[in-house]
Amino acid sequence: MEQKKGLVIKSTGSLYLLRIEGEGEVFAKIGGRLRVKNIRNTNPVAVGDIVLTEKREDYALIIRVLARKNYIIRKATNLSKENHILAANIDQALLLITLKHPATSTLFIDRFLTSAEAYRIPVILIFNKIDLLSQEETQELENLMEIYRKIGYSCYATSAQSQTGVHFIKELLKNKVSVVAGLSGVGKSTLINAIDSRWSLKTGEISAAHQSGKHTTTFAEMFELNSGGYIIDTPGVRGFGLVDISKSELGHYFKEIFLFSQQCKYNNCYHVHEPNCAVREAVAIGKISQSRYENYLKLFLDEDTKHR
Ligand code: GDP
Ligand code: ZN
Q1: What does pTM read for this prediction?
Q2: 89 lines ligand 1 (CB under 6 A)
């Protein structure tokens, strides 16, 4: 039987919406064998998955999920070993940051970057609401962008409200699968809406459904941009949740710390108080930023970061 590839653009738990080349949007169900093979995951198929399908009477049957290049998971519950896959095959995450209204802490930024590195998802930093900044605060912003650019992260400054810099973001999103993350109120909806006005219809739909109290569960969904590309929109991915990172791994996910750690005397150096630590030496001479190192220590001492 002929098999066709599809992209999962919406998941409602038992029914899926696929985009199949040459056929457009098609509803799909999953085959029994696929369910049995995936007992560790509450959902064997996630938004962003590329799947193989066979045609049935009035739907498509998903028979296989192709290898994922990355995915974001959430533990179903604290105790269970089951995972819930929130989204798969993400090309990039755009992290929206505001210096004020609300203030995004560098700890929040660095925690997000750590998780994204662990998930192998490239991150682009977008500093929004620049219209609100004084001259002094603008200088502060420049310094912050310099810290992250030096590590290798692309940084953009925008004002979604006055549409400053928005066309650069539109270009970044083109033909990519992206996640837009950041604290509540930083301007995620405003920015996406400035790029594609159909977004406001979609968010309007969601809040109307919330008010009537119908949809208590929110399902993962991909939003197709007019200009090409998709934005994955699920509540869980906006903050990324916590990734299970151990103390010995943490330094791998701070790119610049990882680089300098190659020269530490001990190869199991935690860069806290060990002698001849190349990381602490780099901090002392300003090659690693103070705030990045302090946040590394905070995350290292965080009780969620396990000894393993
Ligand atoms: P979200 O929670 O991240 O989706 O944030 P929203 O897009 O809902 O924006 C929160 C508030 O910030 C709204 O009142 C927006 O009008 C406002 N806002 C968004 N972008 C900007 C901006 O660039 N400058 C200013 N001054 N306000 C903005
Ligand atoms: Zn060290």
Answers
A1: 0.90
A2: no
298 CA → ligand 2 middle, Å: 16
The answer, yes or no, to whether any atom of ligand 1 lies below 6 A from the CB of 170, is no
What stretches of the chain adopt beta strand conformation (E)?
3-11, 16-20, 24-30, 50-55, 60-65, 71-75, 83-88, 92-97, 123-127, 155-157, 177-181, 221-224, 230-233
Task: Point out which residues pair with 157 in neighbouring strands.
Answer: 127
Residue type, 47: V
Asked whether 161 lines ligand 1 (CB < 6 A), one says yes
Mean pLDDT (10-residue bins), the chain, 308 residues: 93 89 93 68 86 94 94 70 84 96 95 92 98 98 98 98 97 96 92 92 64 52 93 67 80 97 96 97 98 97 79
Tokens of 93: 């995450």
Cβ 106 vs Cβ 88: under 8 Å? no
